Amino acid sequence: MNSIKVILVDDEQEFVTTLSERIQMRNIGTHIAFSGEQALEMVKNFSFDAMVLDLNMPGMDGLAVLKSVKKIHPEIQVIILTGHGSEADQKLTLSSGAFAYLQKPVELDTLIHHIKNAYFKKTPYYTGIINE
């Protein structure tokens, strides 16, 4: 299987850098964006299977990024990962096209499971949920 390519978007640089390193140890390719604006530039220039996206960021927030990504590249599966979310945020992001909504802190295995499910949903060979 080709490596899954994920873009991680979070303004908490230390958190997202550590998360990237931990995900790469699972043979998943990662790129990092520290802002919504930077993420959109990267999405225009590179191909990604999934995006792990924080909601609360200065400048362009996660919801605006989600809506823009779904317009530009609707095939990219977006996983919201937030520490300050609410039930209303969850409903809004899922109805706006997010693949999943997770709260920080999240177990790495849970996040990896969602990334793999997002990847297989994106491909034409999707047959259902991965059981690990």
The top level CATH class name: Alpha Beta
Query: What letter string, H or E per element, gives the SSE order?
Result: EHEHEHEHEH
Strand content: 15-25%
* Helix proportion range: 40-55%
Overall pLDDT metric: 91
- Strand pairing plus helix content: what structural class? alpha/beta
Q: Residue ranges: pLDDT <50 for 5 or more in a row?
A: 126-132
Describe the strand arrangement of the main beta sheet, using strand numbers.
2-1-3-4-5
CATH H-level name... which superfamily? Response regulator
Furnish the topology, listing elements before pairings.
Layout: E1 5-9, H1 13-24, E2 29-33, H2 36-45, E3 50-53, H3 62-72, E4 77-82, H4 87-95, E5 100-103, H5 108-122
Parallel strand pairs: 1-2, 1-3, 3-4, 4-5
Question: Overview of this structure, please?
Answer:
- Helices cover 43% and strands 18% of the residues.
- The protein has a single domain, classed as Response regulator (Rossmann fold, 3-Layer(aba) Sandwich), CATH 3.40.50.
- It is globular, with a radius of gyration of 13 Å.
- The longest helix has 15 residues, at 108-122.
- It is built from 5 helices and 5 strands; from the N terminus they run βαβαβαβαβα.
- The protein has 132 residues and is an alpha/beta fold.
- A 5-stranded parallel sheet has the order 2-1-3-4-5, sandwiched between helices.
Name its key features:
five-stranded parallel beta sheet, alpha/beta, Rossmann fold, globular, single chain, 132 residues
